[in-house]
Sequence to fold (71 residues):
Amino acid sequence: GLEVELMNKIEGKREIDYQLAMSVARRMLLKGLITRDDYKKFEDRMAEKYTPVIGRLFSRLTCNSAVSTGI
Fold:
């Protein structure tokens, strides 16, 4: 019903906001502006703030891939 639809929209917005924040952090990490430790701390803070359902797994996978390939 309406409650499920509203929750899906809220969860979707949280996922998007989390991914945007982590995207900026990944770029900063790759440019050497922050350390990997800084990145992990930021990731933990953003996970607490946005409570993403799938975003955290995706963020770690893309970060590891980006760092190892230099993307």
Summary: The CA atoms of residues 26 and 64 lie 10 Å apart. The helical segments are 2-30, 36-50, 55-69.
